[in-house]
Amino acid sequence: MKAMLQLRQSQKLTLTPQLCQAISLLQLSTQGVEQEVARMLDENPLLECEDVSAVTPGALGGATSIGLPGKREITETLPQQHTSEEVKEDNWGVDYFPVEGSPDDESRCHAEASTNGPSLREHLILQLSVSQHSTRDCKIIGLLIDALDENGYLTQSLEEIVEMLPKQLNVTLNDAETALVQLQQLDAPGIAARSLSECLALQLKALPEDTAGRDVALRLVTQHLKLLAAHNFVKLKKYLRCGDDVLRTAQSLVAHLQPRPGAEFEQRIGDYVIPDVIVERRHGSWHARLNKSAIPRLQINQLYANILQQSTEANTSQLANKLQEARWFIQNLQKRFDTILCVSQAIVRHQTNFFEHGESAMRPLVLQEISSQLDLHESTISRATTQKFMLTPRGIYELKYFFCGGVGTTDGDVRSSMAIRTLIRQAIEQEPAHHPLTDERMSEMLAQQGIVIARRTVAKYRELLKIPPANLRKLL
Q1: pLDDT category of residue 98 using cuts at 50, 70 and 90
Q2: Which residues contact 18 (CB under 8 A, 6 or more apart)?
Q3: What is the pLDDT of residues 382-396, one digit of tens each?
Q4: Which of 11, 19, 401, 446 is deepest in the core (most CB within 10 A)?
Q5: Which residue, 110, 195, 186, is CA-closest to 145?
Q6: E-assigned strands of 73-212?
Q7: End-to-end CA distance of the chain
Q8: Which residues in 241-284 belong to E strands, given as ranges?
Q9: CA distance 294 to 276
Q10: Residue ranges per structural domain of the chain
Q11: Residues whose CB falls within 8 Å of the CB of residue 145, separated by 6 or more in sequence, listed in order
Q12: pLDDT band with cut points at 50, 70 and 90 for residue 61
């Protein structure tokens, strides 16, 4: 074999650090981006938050305006010799705004669930402090309160609790049982129960004695709770020796009880969602725009940039690297928001019927359709829609929510799986309580509308909606 040199031309994609950072930023949530921005501000002295009151576009020499389409611009201050190429390459035309935002609709985008009321323990201790119990009894009851779980149940046996109590209190099992009864008489009803049956029974006993169905309901929760959960009304009427009306009243009474009496006192600090995109109706059509509150406003530190520009020393390479990193970060941050906006606009164009009529009008949509339309890879679309949220007049949705498969109809149309699930939910909401629709019956009803799907598909959609089967939805 003869050895020879060959010249071959080829193309390949190299995963540079800049590209890695762009991919990483795109897949982060808004909270993740905030954390990454904070980290970069700590590590890179060339990067800083822009002071809106002190900096105006064009006020600094050698400043480059880079931004998304809108009313204001972000100012990236760069050394003069580095600006022209970057302006030409990165004229994204996207707006950057302070994280704080203004007192408009963006300020209401932070949906945070929290309860600021007293905790379960505080609620019970407050009642105990104004009760007529002796000091010793209050101490024992207070120790039992500390043993309650977050649902208000006493999960430890009284014997175990007595063993753990300080010996100097000289508490007997009878003392603990008496204290438990006194604790169970406090608000909220059902507190300090040792089982679900006891919890429900305590709540029923707290009702007036002349409450309709109270006695039968007590027998239901203390003797036949499993039959009630299985909706076995035939056996219940036999064991309770009552008619339909009496059993129906008792069942309704039990249904309104609280199985977790301590849950309402839980201190919840829920995760809040900051929408990346806001959808509005303007001039008769739907438009997507970026949420100003979710976009950080960054710039290059002018002081360090000028020092680097004027320096002739060779030991400024580290500062030059930091400058390049800051420029990359600002550019990649812009690309992230630009990509999210483009994908969101494509989703809005495709799902216009959803914004007009709701879930039942949602069209089938897969990543490949948006990918082809925007000339982006499917993985890019996936990253741009994961943990990114859209605020609409119908609520806040993750961008991935708008992607769903489709089912062909007999008239040649295609209905989205989301629309079919909505039809199933609406049918169940309108079903007669004493004769709920089976999965087979719903399959037949959908077939009458031209949507032919199997019973097991209906069952799968119903389970996704967290709706129990027909036998568990049946009421007497």
Answers
A1: very low
A2: 328, 332
A3: 999 999 999 999 999
A4: 446
A5: 186
A6: 74-77
A7: 90
A8: 277-282
A9: 6
A10: 42-108+295-327, 405-476
A11: 121, 124, 125, 128, 183
A12: very low
| SS3 (DSSP) at 435 | coil
Which residues lie closer than 8 Å to 100 by C-beta, 6 or more apart? 293
Helical pair 196-205 and 214-223, crossing angle rounded to 10 deg = 170
How far is 203 from 191, CA to CA, in rounded Å? 9
285-290/395-398 β-pairing: unpaired
Is-contact 335 376, C-beta < 8 A? no
CA angle 181/182/186 to nearest 5° reads 110
Kindly report the number of other CB atoms within 10 A of residue 357's CB atom: 11
State how far the Cα of 179 lies from the Cα of 194, in Å rounded to an integer: 14
CB 119 within 8 A of CB 267: yes
Structure tokens at 203: 């709540």
Q: Which of 184, 181, 177 is nearest to 161 (CA)?
A: 177
pLDDT at 56 over 70: no
Please tell me the predicted confidence (pLDDT) of residue 62. 34
Residues 6+ apart with CB under 8 A from 231: 471, 472, 474, 475
- The pLDDT assigned to 95 comes to 34
Q: Report the pLDDT value the prediction gives residue 80, as an integer from 0 to 100.
A: 36
Q: Is 262 helix (H, G, I), strand (E, B) or coil?
A: coil
The single-letter DSSP state of residue 364 is: P
- Residue corresponding to tokens 């959908």: 446
Q: In whole angstroms, give the CA distance from residue 202 to residue 301.
A: 67
Provide the CATH number for the domain formed by 405-476 in this structure.
1.10.10.60
For the record, the structure tokens of 437 come out as 């629709």
| Whole-number Å distance between alpha carbons of 34 and 120 | 35
Q: What angle do CA 39, 68, 301 make, to 5 degrees?
A: 40
Q: Is the pLDDT of residue 333 over 90?
A: yes
Kindly indicate the confidence band of residue 269, based on its pLDDT and cuts at 50, 70 and 90.
low
The CA distance from 254 to 202, in Å, is 12
Tokens of 15: 């995963």
Q: With CA atoms as reference, report the closest residue to 23 among 11, 9, 8, 13.
A: 13
CA distance 63 to 87: 10
